[in-house]
Design goal:
Blueprint: E1 8-10, H1 12-19, E2 24-27, H2 30-35, H3 40-54, E3 58-65, E4 68-71, H4 75-83, E5 88-90, H5 95-100, E6 105-107, H6 109-119, E7 123-125, H7 136-139, H8 144-151, E8 155-158, H9 167-176, E9 181-183, E10 203-204, H10 208-220, E11 227-230, H11 241-257, H12 265-276, H13 280-305
Parallel strand pairs: 1-4, 2-3, 2-7, 5-6, 7-8, 8-11, 9-10, 9-11
Antiparallel strand pairs: 3-4, 3-6
Bound molecules: pseudouridine-5'-monophosphate.
Length: about 300
């Protein structure tokens, strides 16, 4: 299926599910190209897709291939993306430029939200959103993910802002822009690898049906934007804050020493964490993404029931 003015292709199963009003969960591709090493990135992408299917929804992994927005990838496309070296990391600003150049690009949270919304998908599962980087008062490094949440009506399920960020400042920006930050199952805001950030969550809803309803009410009230659902990493997979904090400090110090900036910061820090924890951060990351995919399915099912 192709939109008249935009090269956007829905895979046959995504197109079928959407036209039948069945639950669909969007998945991003930056986590594949810039968030995890090969081959764990490919294995995770495949496992997340099967987890979504096993929990009653159709997965729609989103990427730009040869200038076309693909919503739902084939197994071969997923494999090519996981092995590719020169894929651009796309956010709101660079997405249309990549399409105009007929390039290949992986979608961040912001770009995935845009494409999911164009396709008519209401729920999206990822690992962790981007946010306000530590030291932002000097660098002004604030992820475009935050402003996307403020304007695009997609419910994003994540395990919290990544703990490499300045979490209190990230919450402040979200609050300023009217983005609901809703935690499931506990009163503390989760922090990606850890269940407890040490900060109280602004909002809590434990029932996926209420999460879907809150989004529908937002829309009915004419309020722009989506919702950030923060889902704590499963207990058995978490790396507690006291243990991960010194590792984050070490990774941040490496990034500063090497002068890493802009789009490279998050991929560099995730890779440094992988090295410094001897792979444990990646195992936790995989567990939390699978957990988020399961919750996103329950929300997508609630949306489909209306
Ligand atoms: N979740 C993960 N790993 C990732 C990401 C999310 O578990 O790599 C990606 C998302 O695409 C998110 C991006 O949008 O990290 C944040 O990048 P930045 O801080 O440059 O905005």
């Amino acid at each position: 299926m192709t939109l008249p003015d935009l090269p956007l292709i829905l895979s046959p199963d995504v197109a079928q599910a959407l036209s039948a009003g069945q639950p669909v969960v969007a998945l991003e591709s930056t986590i594949i190209t810039h968030g995890m090493p090969y081959p764990q990135n490919l294995e995770t992408a495949r496992r997340v897709e099967s987890e979504v299917r096993a929990h009653g929804a159709t997965p729609a992994t989103i990427a730009i291939l040869g200038g076309t927005v693909h919503v739902g990838l084939t197994s071969d496309q997923l494999e090519a993306l996981a092995q590719a070296k020169d894929v651009a990391k796309l956010s709101r600003a660079d997405l249309p430029v990549c399409i105009a150049r007929k390039g290949n690009g992986a979608t961040t949270v912001a770009a995935t939200m845009i494409c999911a919304h164009l396709a008519g998908i209401k729920v999206f599962a990822t690992g962790g959103i981007g946010g306000v980087h530590r030291g932002a008062s000097e660098t002004f490094d604030i992820s475009a993910d935050l402003l996307e949440l403020a304007q695009t009506p997609v419910t994003v399920v994540a395990a919290g802002p990544k703990a490499i960020l300045d979490i209190p400042k990230t919450l402040e920006v979200l609050e300023t822009h009217g983005v609901p930050v809703i935690t499931v199952g506990q009163d503390a805001l989760p922090a990606f690898w850890s269940r407890d950030s040490g900060i109280a969550t602004p909002l809590r809803l434990d029932d996926p049906a209420l999460i879907a309803q809150a989004a529908q009410i937002r829309q009915a009230m004419g309020l722009k934007g989506g919702q950030l659902i923060t889902n704590p990493i499963p207990r058995e997979a978490e790396i507690a804050r006291a243990e991960i904090d010194p590792v984050i400090e070490a990774a941040l110090a490496e990034a500063t020493a090497k002068g890493i900036g802009a789009k490279e910061v998050t991929p560099f820090l995730l890779d440094a964490m992988f090295r410094l924890t001897e792979g444990r951060s990646l195992i936790a990351n995989i567990a939390l993404v699978l957990n988020n995919a399961r919750l996103a399915c329950a929300i997508a099912i609630a949306f489909a029931k209306g």
